[in-house]
Amino acid sequence: MTLNQLRVFLAAARLGSFTAAAESLEMAQPSVSELVKRLEETYGTRLFVRGGRRLILTSAGRELLPLAEQTVASAAAADRALRAVNALTGGVASFGLLRNANYYSLSNLLTQFHAAHPSVRLRVLGVNSVEVAHMVQVGELEAGLVVLPVDTTELKVLPLRRDEVLYASANPDHVKRPVTLADLAARNLILYDAHYGWRDPTRRQLADRAQIEGITLEARIEVEQTGSALNLVAAGAGDTFVSKTIVDSGTCPPEIYFTSFADPFFETVALVQREDTVLSPATAELARLAQLMLSDSANL
């Protein structure tokens, strides 16, 4: 059994004919038929039912299909990994960043990367973690940084940093003690990431906890940007919650006070990529640099 035989088998199974498989692989049709025939003869079993308008997999063919897909994908990954040994003299880095990346000392990430690798093209998107994870899953991005929890189906997840979430209010009475979910439900909440709402990973954690306790949480005001929410809190319009990293960044209005939650909870920042892919050299280097920056900022 050879990789060429498996590639031909997969193309024929996907396209339904040896002719179409030959065209997609840029091979002669007799060569495609012969490769499949030899594979069948080696194991003494038919892989396709022939004679109709479309090739149909036999039971043996159905057994082989997922294994062939895995083998061919692994070979392609190995090829990319070996090619990645070459120096970064071109290519594209495709990466997703947290919406609040600047608070995590990632503001200089692209500047440093470009200075070191000026010939590499950059495609970097800063969106909500829900969207970053989805774009990596469907192949629109190679990798990205997210806040958990998100849908990690078919993703490899590497947790990098754990960050406590704090309650924020301009009313000193609201932060005299750690805040409970009951407290949260009774107050005017100002929440950011309005587009994603309760799908946002941080909100999702709170919503899951509230559901267990039979508590309903609702936002009085929703905005897109964290800074906008904090400015409204400073003006006394309501309260919100933010990560400790944002609190420690020195960018929060001085009118705001902070406290922990009675049952502390955390944002976990993680690197995600597809399970079945090897990152391109450019994206792998950008991911490595992002990990270093997150590690350094966590140790400050």
UniProtKB/TrEMBL annotation:
HTH lysR-type domain location: 1-58
InterPro entries linked to this entry: HTH-type_LysR_regulators, LysR_HTH_N, LysR_subst-bd, WH-like_DNA-bd_sf, WH_DNA-bd_sf
GO molecular function, one term: DNA-binding transcription factor activity
GO CC term, one of those recorded: cytosol
Keywords for this protein: DNA-binding, Transcription, Transcription regulation
Keyword hit for NAD: no
Record has Transcription regulation as a keyword: yes
Family recorded in the similarity comment: Belongs to the LysR transcriptional regulatory family.
Protein name stated in the entry: LysR family transcriptional regulator
